[in-house]
Specification:
Number of helices: 11
InterPro entries: ADC_synth_comp_1 (IPR005802), ADC_synthase (IPR005801), Anth_synth_I-like (IPR019999), Anth_synth_I_N (IPR006805), Chorismate_C (IPR015890)
EC number: 2.6.1.85
Pfam families: Anth_synt_I_N, Chorismate_bind
Keywords: Aminotransferase, Transferase
CATH architecture: 4-Layer Sandwich
CATH topology: Anthranilate synthase
Domain Chorismate-utilising enzyme C-terminal: 231-484
Strand content: 25-35%
Helix content: 25-40%
Radius of gyration: 22 Å
CATH superfamily: Anthranilate synthase
Strand order of the largest sheet: 1-2-9-8-4-3-14-15-24-25-13-11-10
C-alpha cells in the first residue's frame, strides 16, 4: 500500500497533478532501512545517511539514495580551486521549495568531502604516504531519495524528475523513476528479500600486500589489526605536539593513528555490524566504484536550515563502565575535567571564528557548552554553536570558511594542520572529512567522519585520534584512542 502525497497536495490546492513536483509516495508499511541497504547494495554510488541511534535527540531522519544523475570526483585538491562550482551553478538555476511535513532532504547533491579537500582553501602539506588513493571529493546529484522520519515511524519516496543535464524536470520522468524504485521496495516488503546472503559480490581485485603499506605494527592484543605507529612512537609524536604547544605554535592539535585490518566481506555487511554494535546519530554508508566509507559518527559538522547554522563539536571522551554506578562516576569525572573542558572550549572558540566569516555579526551564540552525551562504548563532552548566515551566502561559502572541522584539526587551525601533516605519515582521506547532503531547497547537513571504516584494496582503514593540549599525557592519549576504537573492533569480530 502507499499514499500519494503529491496527489493529495494537488487536490488541496486545485492544481493539475502534472504540475506537482517533486513526486512523493509514502511507503506503507514503513520499510526497514537495513533490508533496503542490502537490496540496493549493488547499485551505483549508494549513499545512506543514517540516524542509527534513534534514541538520541539528534537521531531524527535517515536517507537512502543511489544511481545519481551526475557524478563529480576530484582526486587531489589544489589551492585556489572551487570544488563546489558545479553545485553553485545548478543551485543558481533551481531553487525548489520544500514539501512541508517531510524530512528536510528531498533530493539534490550528496557525497563525500575528504579531509585533504581543505587544501583548496588553506595551504598545508599533504602527508607523504597515500597507498589507497581515495579521492578528495566524490559527489553525486541524487534525483530520488527514500527518507525516514524516525519520530513518526514513517518513510517516503521523493522524486524530483530531473534530466541528466540537470536543466529540466518532468512529471512523466518522475513517475517512471518512482515506479522503478517502488518495485524494488515492494520486493523487500512482500517477497522477504533483503538478507545478508543476497549481497552482491564485492570488488575482487588482489588485496594490497602488507609490505606495500607505509608502516604496519601489530596492535597490542589484536594480532590481525595493524597501526601505522607502534605505541612508543605514537607517544613520542604526542610529546612533540606538546613541545609545539609550549613553543607557542598552537594551543591544540588533533593527532591520530591509522588502524588497518584485512577484509574480504562486502562493506554493507560490515556496516550493518557497525551500526548494530555502535549505533550513532550521524552514521552513514557510501559505496563509490571500488571503495566504500562506513561511519558510526556521533558528531554533526554543519547543519543549515533556512539561514540558521548549527555545529556540534565533540572534545572529551571517557570509556563506558559496565557497572551503572561506576558509569555515572565516569560521567561526572568527564564533566568536571578541566583538561577536557579546555579542549572543548578551545574548539568552540575556533568554530565561532570560522562561522563569523559567513554569519551575521552578533548572531553567533553557544546554547550548549560541554554537556555530556552517552554512547554505546564512550561518553563525550559536546557543545553547540549557532549563527545566522549573511544574506546571499550559500552553504558552499560556509563549507569553504570552515572545512575541515575544527574539532579534528586544532587551534590555530592552519598551523595545526601543518603539524598533523608533519607527524602523521599517511593521508587521512575520508577520515575527519564528512558525508553530507545539500538539497535544492537550501537544506544542508553533514557529519564529521570519526568512528569510520574505509574499505579498499582488501583492507579496512579506521583511524582514531584525539585532541592534544599542554596538559595531555602521552600514555593516556594513546589509551583514549583505543577506547574510541572499541566499538569498531567489536564490529570487525562479530
Amino acid at each position: 500500500m502507499s499514499g500519494n502525497l503529491s496527489q493529495d497536495l494537488s487536490q488541496e490546492q486545485g492544481s493539475p497533478i502534472a504540475e506537482q513536483l517533486p513526486l512523493v509516495e509514502e511507503l506503507i508499511p514503513c520499510p526497514d532501512l537495513e533490508q533496503l541497504l542490502i537490496e540496493f547494495a549493488g547499485e551505483d554510488s549508494l549513499l545512506v545517511l543514517d540516524s542509527a541511534r534513534q534514541s538520541s535527540s539528534q537521531g531524527h531522519f535517515s536517507y537512502l539514495m543511489c544511481n545519481p544523475l551526475t557524478r563529480t570526483q576530484i582526486q587531489a585538491a589544489e589551492l585556489g580551486t572551487d570544488p563546489f562550482l558545479p553545485m553553485r551553478e545548478v543551485q543558481a538555476r533551481h531553487q525548489i521549495e520544500s514539501v512541508p511535513g517531510l524530512p528536510p532532504f528531498q533530493g539534490g547533491f550528496a557525497g563525500l568531502l575528504s579531509y585533504e579537500l581543505g587544501r583548496c582553501w588553506e595551504e598545508f602539506p599533504r602527508a607523504p604516504q597515500d597507498e589507497f588513493q581515495l579521492p578528495d571529493f566524490a559527489v553525486g546529484f541524487y534525483d530520488w531519495v527514500i527518507a525516514w522520519d524516525h519520530h513518526q515511524h514513517r518513510a517516503w519516496l521523493i522524486v524530483q524528475g530531473f534530466d541528466e543535464s540537470l536543466n529540466a524536470q518532468s512529471y512523466e520522468r518522475a513517475i517512471q523513476r518512482c515506479q522503478s524504485v517502488k518495485a524494488r521496495t515492494d520486493s523487500v516488503l512482500f517477497d522477504r528479500r533483503g538478507r545478508i546472503d543476497q549481497l552482491p559480490q564485492w570488488n575482487t581485485e588482489p588485496p594490497l600486500p602488507l609490505e606495500a603499506l607505509s608502516s604496519a605494527f601489530p596492535l597490542e592484543g589484536y594480532p590481525h589489526i595493524f597501526s601505522n605507529f607502534c605505541k612508543a612512537e605514537f607517544q613520542d609524536r604526542v610529546s612533540q605536539i606538546i613541545e609545539y604547544i609550549y613553543a607557542g605554535d598552537i594551543f591544540q592539535a588533533n593527532f591520530s593513528h591509522r588502524l588497518l585490518s584485512r577484509t574480504t566481506s562486502h562493506p554493507a555487511e560490515l556496516y550493518l555490524n557497525l551500526r548494530s554494535k555502535n549505533p550513532a546519530p550521524f552514521a552513514g554508508y557510501f559505496g563509490w566504484d571500488d571503495w566504500a566509507v562506513l561511519s558510526a559518527s556521533p558528531e554533526r559538522f554543519l547543519n543549515v536550515s533556512g539561514s540558521e547554522v548549527e555545529t556540534r563539536p565533540i572534545k572529551g571522551t571517557r570509556r563506558r563502565k559496565y557497572v551503572p554506578e561506576a558509569d555515572l562516576l565516569t560521567r561526572d569525572e568527564l564533566r568536571e575535567s578541566e583538561k577536557d573542558q579546555a579542549e572543548n572550549v578551545m574548539i568552540v572558540d575556533l568554530l565561532r571564528n570560522d562561522l563569523s566569516r559567513v554569519c551575521l555579526p552578533g548572531s553567533i551564540r553557544v546554547p550548549q557548552l560541554c554537556s555530556v552525551e552517552t554512547y554505546e562504548t564512550v561518553q563525550h563532552l559536546v557543545s553547540e554553536v549557532r549563527g545566522q548566515l549573511k544574506p546571499d551566502t550559500t552553504v558552499w561559502d560556509l563549507l569553504a570558511a570552515s572545512f575541515p572541522g575544527g574539532s579534528i584539526t586544532g587551534a590555530p587551525k592552519v598551523r595545526s594542520m601543518e603539524i598533523i601533516a608533519e607527524l602523521e605519515p599517511t593521508v587521512r582521506g575520508p577520515y575527519c572529512g564528512c558525508l553530507f547532503y545539500a538539497g535544492l531547497n537550501g537544506e544542508f547537513d553533514s557529519n564529521i567522519l570519526i568512528r569510520t571504516f574505509t574499505v579498499r584494496k582488501g583492507w579496512i582503514q579506521f583511524p582514531v585520534g584525539g585532541g592534544i593540549i599542554a596538559q595531555s599525557q602521552p600514555r593516556l592519549e594513546y589509551e583514549e584512542t583505543l577506547h574510541k576504537a572499541a566499538g569498531m573492533i567489536a564490529a570487525l569480530h562479530s
